[in-house]
Amino acid sequence: MREGDALRGLLAAALLLSLAASAARKPVIRELFVPAVADMREPVTLWCRYDLAGARLYSVKWYKDDQEFYRYMPDEQPPAQTFPVPYVSLDESLCDKERVTLAQLTFNSSGAYRCEVSVEAPSFDTAHQSANMSVMALPREAPYIEGVASAYSLGEWVIANCTSNKTSPQALLSWYINGAKAEQWLLDQMPSAEEEAVGDSVSVSSMGVDAWLQTRAPRTHTVDERGLHTSSLGLRFVAERRFFQGSPARVELRCEAAVGERSWERVVSARLAHANNQQLRSASHRLNSAHLLTSSCSVLSALLACSLLRLLVS
């Protein structure tokens, strides 16, 4: 009995050691590189680095959305095989047992990419890991800014336009003045009927519709036949002393274009022009006129809202 018990104990220990050794030899994926965002205009290489723990490699397989598109088996000739999968195009010269390179990306190339590594018999143990990739059209360069003069006198209009070309999704544009995000009322300004109705007493209003249209800060958006977006956002404000900082006094304008989690920016600046007493008086008059216009528009908007409410109630 004792000898039988001892034998069974030895067999159990041997089995446990065998299982432990087998578990230790299972493949492990050490690093899977699949970028969260890829640019449709550029090829992208996906990496799968692994540790076989002393075992022999049987195969490496790549999948997009559970459809196999590449297989590497070192004992086969040739070792690499490709399989047709919609919206997956490979540069086979840049594919091997650790990497695949995707070319000719489209928006439909977005999806879940999985690497699967298997070792040789008898275990054929397998490790796999996956990650999602979104294909976008990223900006080729920083947004460009138009319309900014080298210098401004107090009371002059500062008018700028920022454009980001050929992106998908549409770039989200933002303006910053001296590092602070521009207030919404400085963006996309258009003359309204109420503003024109303020009357001849307001110098800005007396500019007329055509002149107003020249000083608007437009927000435009177009889409081309490939689904790529071009976006513009204008900025317009009156040059006041508070905007010009430092010595010599300058204002810094920055436009930021964000696509996905990445952003691009461009910065320009303008100095404050020296002014004589007559120019200062004129600037003060223009500033007062602009402030009067803003106040008048607020009052007229409130009156219109009240009139509309009375009509609805009646």
Structural overview:
The chain is α+β, with helices and mostly antiparallel strands. It has 2 domains: 25-136, Sandwich (Immunoglobulin-like); 144-273, Immunoglobulin-like, CATH 2.60.40.10. The protein has helices at 2-24, 193-196, 208-214, 277-313, and strands at residues 28-33, 37-39, 44-51, 57-64, 67-72, 80-82, 89-90, 99-103, 111-119, 126-136, 144-146, 151-152, 157-167, 172-177, 180-181, 219-223, 229-238, 250-259, 262-272. It has a 6-stranded mixed beta sheet with strand order 2-10-9-4-5-6, with no helix packed on it. A 5-stranded mixed beta sheet has the order 12-19-18-14-15, with no helix packed on it. A 4-stranded antiparallel beta sheet has the order 1-3-8-7, with no helix packed on it. The termini are far apart. Mean pLDDT is 80; it is low at 13-23, 189-217 and 290-306.
